[in-house]
Every structure is written in structure tokens, then in C-alpha cells.
Amino acid sequence: MALATEKCGRDIDSVQLLAVSKTKPVTAIEQAIDAGLFAFGENYVQEGVDKVNYFASHPAAKQLVWHFIGPIQSNKTRPIAEHFDWVHSIDRLKTATRLNEQRPTTMAPLNVLLQVNTSGEASKSGISANEVIELAAAIATMPQLTLRGLMSIPQPETDYDSQFAAFKALADLLEQLKPHHPQLDTLSMGMSGDMEAAIAAGSTMVRIGTALFGARDYSNQA
């Protein structure tokens, strides 16, 4: 990550490393905390909730920030609203409404990102770019949600120019939203294989899993 930021003339502190800990045991997260990482991303609701609860009594508990980055089923919005600090995968008004209604008023508003389908692939989650303005305006009226920016998982590309173009499209979209939503400050884009292009295009948060924790074990998804 340091090399990627240096190459495009950005300060390394302008990009946050989100450690994607899905399917990883708590021992691996404990090692990551010892190494100075405090932001973790989870894809599966029950697994993520179990980890949030486990680490509630950890000495570093107040420093930990939990991000839900997976697809959201309507019947699982409550545990997400009650346990996580961030949600990256908002792609429907119904989902946002439920999270807003179910977020306890004793907790800080839930930080949310709109997931944008930049490739147009039907198999990819996310809203189209022309739906973003309307959904962002709706979320702006919800007191228990704070819209922070956009997230994307673009179509896998092997060449840098194609990767950069997809990420730049999302960065441009965020700039179009800022006059109406000045609090927007987050672009969640880039993983191990395309991190360099994402950072060059303006990513403020890269989601890194395998490069940190090794290959994932999908045998206990929940």
C-alpha cells in the first residue's frame, strides 16, 4: 500500500486499510490487532456478530471498528444495525430504511456506503450510477444513518488501464454528489489484485483479506 500511494503521489494516511477478516478465526484477528490494525470487514452476518460480541471485552475494544461488507438480506438487517459501525453494501431503499429504523438510538448513527454496479453486469450487486442521486437524497433524511460515500466491486480486469477506468468512474460519481452531500469522504474500492489502480483513482479505503490473512475457509458461512 505504501508503494501504491507513493507511486501516485498520495499520502499513505489518506488511504485506510480495511482488514477483511471474513471466515478467519478470532486468533487471526487478535494477531492483526497486535500488529496495529483496528478496522475489520465481515461478509456474513452471524459470523460477524459473533466476532463483534467476542471482542467487546478485548482491551482494544473501543478502538475496533466493524464494517459489514457483504450482501444484505432483508431479514438480517437488525443484527447488522445493532452491531456494526459501517455498512458498505446499501443498494436498495428498503434496506436503508430498515437499517435506519433498527439502529438503536443509544448508538451513533450507522455509517453507510452505496454500492454501485459500475460494470453493468446483472450478476453484480449494486445500483446503477443513475440511481445514486435519488437513493443518496433519501438516506440524507434518515437520522440513524450517515451517508459517507460509495463502494464498488468492479468486474475483474487484468490490465491496469481497465482497472483504473472503472475506479475513476466511481470517483467521478462521488465528486458529482459532494455539492449536495458535503460530508461524503469515503471511496471503498480496491482489493489485493487491483489496489494500485484503485488508489491512483482516489480510493480512501482498500479491502485486503488474503494478502493479510492467507486463503479463506468458506466451510462455515452464515
Describe the structure.
By secondary structure, the chain is α/β, with parallel strands linked by helices. The protein has a single domain (2-213), classed as TIM Barrel (Alpha-Beta Barrel). The chain is built from nine helices and eight strands. It has helices at residues 2-7, 26-34, 45-54, 77-83, 93-102, 132-139, 160-177, 195-201, 210-213, and strands spanning 16-20, 39-42, 65-68, 86-90, 110-115, 145-151, 186-188, 205-208. It has an eight-stranded parallel beta sheet with strand order 7-6-5-4-3-2-1-8. Helix 3 (45-54) links the parallel strand 2 and strand 3 (65-68). It is globular. The model has no long low-confidence stretch (mean pLDDT 93). Pfam families: Ala_racemase_N. It comes from Photobacterium toruni. Its cofactor is pyridoxal 5'-phosphate.
